[in-house]
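Researcher: I'd like a structural prediction for the single chain below. Treat it as a standalone chain; there are no partners to consider.
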Amino acid sequence: MNVLIISMLSVVILFVSGCNRKDVIPERLEGKVDRDLRYSDIKHDPLAKKGKLMLAGGKVLAAERVKDGTRIEVLQIPLSEDLMPTGRETESKGRFVVIDRDGQVSDPAVFDDENKRITVVGEVVGSTTITIDETQQRVPQLALKHVTVWDWDRVKSGYTPYYGYGYPRAWGGAYGGYYGYPYYW
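Model: Treating it as a single chain, here is the predicted structure.
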């Protein structure tokens, strides 16, 4: 009996994991993303990988409207097998900036929660300067292609994808979701 329950639970976990991975990389971008490209590969010389699509994720530190779109500053956190930020902030290798020039993020206020995590599909476009405390620092910049926003689920004590973002018809009718499709990094 216990073996049967464990087997069934394993199947459910694998199914859920597969669903998350599918949602994080939309079909239109599958096969175009360089799954071997890591933050450490672009940290010091993002121009060497310019034009490549990659997955990146982390904790949203700031989001604001700027002249050419929405700018999201992210503390990089390694991704799990499910392409979700692991939550181990101490393993971060630095920060990066995602710029949404296509209007996929309708309001930066969606990132106001201090526990907000994202996984983005982004195109490496170069670097930009950010201010950390009183110091200027160059960090990689990505052009947003897709974002998955992970909300903290207090009941499950873990992160789950927010189905209002990037999931077709998530809110009914012809509305295609908040971002059109989730983005990852």
